[in-house]
Each structure stands twice: as C-alpha cells, then as structure tokens.
C-alpha cells in the first residue's frame, strides 16, 4: 500500500512538472507573438493596412469579437463585414506578468489604432458600404 501511494505521488508530480513546462513553452510563444506592439507605431500600421482588408484590430472576449475604440453600432458592422484582424494572445488566459503587460499595451494600441483609422476613413469617405459610412457619421 505504501509503495502504491508513493508511485501515485510520483506520477502526479511528473504530470505537474510536464504541465508546467508545457505552459512555460506556450507562454513564451504567446509573449514572442505579442512583442510586435513594442516596435510598431499606430501610424506605420495604418499606412500598411489602410487599403487592405481586414482593416480593424479586434480582440475576442468570452467568445465575442470586440473592436476596441469603436462605438457599439460600428463595432457590430465591422464584425459582420469581417473587416478585422483578431490579435493573438488576447484571450482570457494570462500566462505571466510580461504577458499581462503586453495585453494592456496591445489593447491600448488597438484602441488608438481603431480610433485613428475610423477618423481617417471618415475623413476620406473610404468605406466598403454606404451603411457603414452612415453609421460612422452618427
């Protein structure tokens, strides 16, 4: 009986160690994938994306796509038209402190980017549909 308990404890400890290594590898990949926010400006990203689709930056929260910085009615239209790019690493899972900090920076970047892009598109009447344009102007 004593040996069975020891064997079970060894299996549990091995599984926990494996899970910890797996999470640290996954956390490292997520953090690496998010480092773009440290070296990119809103203006440079807009210059690259202004004439392409998807245009807006989005996050997924509780299974719903959100477009930070846009009013709800416009957010719904952008999601419906699929004119957005989902940002990696923004799920509900937070791996470590560095990931948490990058999530904040990425969300702030997305909000600033989307607001600026909305303004530019509004100023230039650069919309994919009359309905989207009329909603922007509200």
Give a summary of the structure in a few sentences.
By secondary structure, the chain is mainly α. It has five helices and three strands, in the order H-H-E-E-H-E-H-H. The protein has a three-stranded mixed sheet with strand order 2-1-3.
Strand content: 5-15%
Radius of gyration: 21 Å
The total strand number stands at 3
Helix residue percentage = 55-70%
Question: Would you tell me the structural class of the helices and strands?
Answer: mainly alpha
What do you see in this structure?
Strands 2-1-3 form a 3-stranded mixed beta sheet. The protein is built from 5 helices and 3 strands. It has 138 residues and is mainly alpha-helical. It has one domain. β1 and β2 (64-66) form a beta hairpin. The model is unreliable at 15-20 and 128-138 (pLDDT under 50).
Topology:
Elements: H1 2-34, H2 42-49, E1 56-61, E2 64-66, H3 72-81, E3 84-86, H4 97-123, H5 130-136
Parallel strand pairs: 1-3
Antiparallel strand pairs: 1-2
Helix pairs in contact: 1-4, 2-4
